Amino acid sequence: MSRTVAACQLALADLDVEANLSAVESRVRELSEDVAVALFPEYALTGFVADGRAADVALARDGPEIDRVARLARDSGTALVVGFVERAADGDAEEETLYNATAYVAPGGTRAFYRKRHLWEGERELLEAGTERVVVDTPVGSAGILTCYDLNFVEESAAFTREGVDALFVVGAWPGAYSENWTLLLRARALDGVRWVVGAGRTGRRDLPGARSVTYAGRSLVARPDGGVHAALDRREDDLVAELDSETLAAQRDLVGIYDGESRTPSRRPDDE
Fold first, then answer.
1. Which of 41, 119, 132, 226 could bond to 202 as cystine, CB 3.0-4.6 Å?
2. Across residues 61-85, what is the average pLDDT?
3. Domain contains 269
4. Is the pTM value of this prediction over 0.85?
5. DSSP string across 120-139
6. H or E element: which one contains 180?
7. What share of the chain is helix, strand, coil (3-state, %, to 5)?
8. How far apart are CA 50 and CA 124, in angstroms?
9. Total domain count for the chain?
10. Helix orientation angle between 17-30 and 64-76, rounded to the nearest 10 degrees
């Protein structure tokens, strides 16, 4: 089984779902057959702006757009990790709630959804924070999902360390002005949990009328279980392809001994279909 991942670094079209879906499809079709998991940036399908326009492009997790991603995963044989603004009718609420969501969609039909737990700036005024951590079983081992600003919170890393996950999948849209922090935190989360970390970052620029302009960092990165940089991109649109070697992970864990004798909390994982 292939243990190769791709972090697909994109410049998104904010508020244009069709353009973003087409870009994701194009990039996946260009990947080599040995790529088992492909990650795309935060809000990859919808983009984001902190006003009512985000609600206009928000997607339901059981809607046709996610079905289209599922068909792409099936046809390509590649598990896909994509971010989007999610709309959901929660409980008895009369109005729909919006979330910063990330979908993991496997070729066999398994789907899992993570809602960002730590919201950043304008997100707090528009979105609801998620409450659950999500672990998925993937071709490269068990993986926890994080979104961008989640990286700053050590308790998230500690929780996934107790789970004993083999990797963290991180989708981001990190501002270019703080790109060094993105790189630092990806490496730190690899080191403190002794695991692989794959970060897929947004690049390009958001320049919409009525919204603050942002230049994004890009700098997608794969960090080794010892915190070193295994592979990295600059700001260009490109695919970062790397193998997450299981022997490298096992050797580092044997060296550090972080999991010796520790109990692990059972994961909440989607059932395979």
1. 41
2. 98
3. no
4. yes
5. -TTHHHH-PPP----EEEET
6. helix 179-193
7. 30, 30, 40
8. 9
9. 1
10. 10
